[in-house]
Amino acid sequence: xxxxxxxxxxxxxxxxxxxxxxxxxxxxxxxxxxxxxxxxxxxxxxxxxxxxxxxxxxxxxxxxxxxxxxxxxxxxxxxxxxxxxxxxxxxxxxxxxxxxxxxxxxxxxxxxxxxxxxxxxxxxxxxxxxxxxxxxxxxxxxxxxxxxxxxxxxxxxxxxxxxxxxxxxxxxxxxxxxxxxx
Length: 182
Hints:
The protein is an all-alpha fold.
């Protein structure tokens, strides 16, 4: 399995290709930039190794505690819930969305309970503005972000699979070579 440094290097090496490909496909520098930024974020912070105490996990700094339940939910490292090409990203996205929602609702409840109704009202208005803005974005904006997130995680998984496959192939060749010598 490649080291964390190798995964990081691959992410940085491929990101310009994502940017160029996104620009070529959409003719929009902005959309391509969102795709590349999402790709880098996924490769460095939102990838399959969040199921371990990994480089990705520690990059969350004081917020890394939010990934503890995720680590308990994933049965073992390289399970489809973490390293699956489709299921891994969607499971992390669903998990992260649930955690953010719980934190948001919990914060609003606590503020309301503490008698800070004006702060709650302001937060609700800000949320409404954000959702209105998001609703006005074109579909390709969201697709670019989704592709970037998926691409960063997929690169990680594919690199793991390539190294594992190479090791298996090398191991088989060594066994065959030893058998032939006997």
